[in-house]
Write a structure and sequence with these properties.
mainly alpha
Length: 336
């Protein structure tokens, strides 16, 4: 478990970066739901999101660090898994889930990914997990049961729940593949993420070619906030790509230069809480008190699971490769 330490200016910057990214991701849930409600299919929104992010992210990297975009044939298998499962499927499952579930609930289920990664570490990599983790896992299952109200025959949409768990499994694989790549020390996360979005774009485009895209749907208007004028769908999609994906991804990656991976991932747990609150205010997606309590139990369990060694993101020892793609040491390593 990471030791308590003084909040240095560097750590404050890291927390600010993560907090800003989580806020943008949370807002994106409400904006994305407005796009889906307007009639844009989940896979089509995924197509625009991954393609737009790939183009913009690649442009940024090409300007700042062009040589990092070079890839080798040996990297292709991992990139394919990372892009198809870790990015394309995560996005698609998430959009399907929020179309059928309250945004906060969908994110809550998706954020069980760290627990799934820890289970993989225990059973797949034979890493011993402390008893506290198993108590956290049991608490998470109880909390999810409270959210779904299983004693009433499950009050949540079945397809939405399955999609949310599909997003959790895909996100877990995203973390596992990303960590393995970083441990190899051959690629930084910026370029690896860019190529992941490239693979995701190709995969989704094969399933649904661009020449069949229902562009007319982008001309529709959707109400984001009751009482305010409807907003063009194309403008909402632009938000999803730029402020809902590209910017928060870059902020999250930048935070790893100031925080340990565990601290960064735990701080990001702010997202489902804020997303649920925003959806409640903007979309009138309210939860019963028992469901709110269950959500709090799940979030607490996830934090405990992360802090007991089940965190899904790279460890402090691998952060120099994450941040700079070179040998620069990270400030937080000195406090280990």
């Amino acid at each position: 478990m990471e030791r308590l330490r003084t909040i240095t200016p560097s750590r404050r910057r890291g927390l600010l970066l993560v907090g800003t990214a989580s806020t943008l991701f949370a807002i994106n849930g409400t904006v994305s739901k407005a796009v889906l409600v307007a009639g844009v299919p989940a896979l089509r929104l995924t197509e625009l999101r991954v393609a737009g992010t790939f183009l913009l992210l690649t442009m940024v990297i090409a300007i700042i660090r062009p040589r990092s975009l070079r890839i080798t044939r040996a990297e292709l298998p991992m990139l394919i898994i990372y892009g198809v499962v870790g990015i394309a499927l995560v996005q698609t499952f998430y959009f399907v889930a929020i179309r059928r579930l309250p945004v906060g609930v969908a994110l809550l289920i998706e954020y069980t990914a760290p627990i799934l990664v820890a289970l993989w570490a225990h059973f797949g990599q034979h890493r011993r997990l402390p008893p506290r983790f198993w108590w956290a896992l049991a608490a998470a299952m109880i909390g999810l049961s409270m959210v779904a109200q299983v004693w009433r025959g499950a009050t949540l949409n079945a397809i939405g729940v399955l999609a949310a768990f599909g997003a959790a499994v895909s996100l877990a694989l995203y973390f596992i593949v990303g960590e393995r790549t970083i441990r190899a020390g051959t690629r930084d996360l910026y370029s690896f993420t860019a190529w992941g979005f490239a693979v995701a774009t190709i995969a989704v485009s094969i399933l649904q070619p661009w020449w069949t895209y229902p562009w007319a749907l982008l001309g529709r208007r959707s109400t984001l906030i009751e009482g305010l004028p409807a907003i063009p769908v194309w403008l909402l999609v632009l938000w999803v790509v730029v402020l809902g994906t590209l910017v928060p991804y870059l902020l999250t990656l930048a935070s790893l230069g100031h925080l340990t991976a565990t601290a960064s991932s735990v701080a990001s747990m702010f997202e489902p809480v804020l997303a649920g609150a925003l959806a409640w205010i903007v979309l009138s997606e309210s939860l019963l008190p028992i469901q709110v309590l269950g959500a709090a139990v799940v979030l607490g369990a996830i934090v405990v699971a992360e802090l007991t060694g089940g965190h899904p993101m790279p460890t402090e020892a691998t952060l120099p490769e994450v941040v700079g793609g070179g040998s620069q040491e990270v400030e937080d390593q000195q406090d280990r």
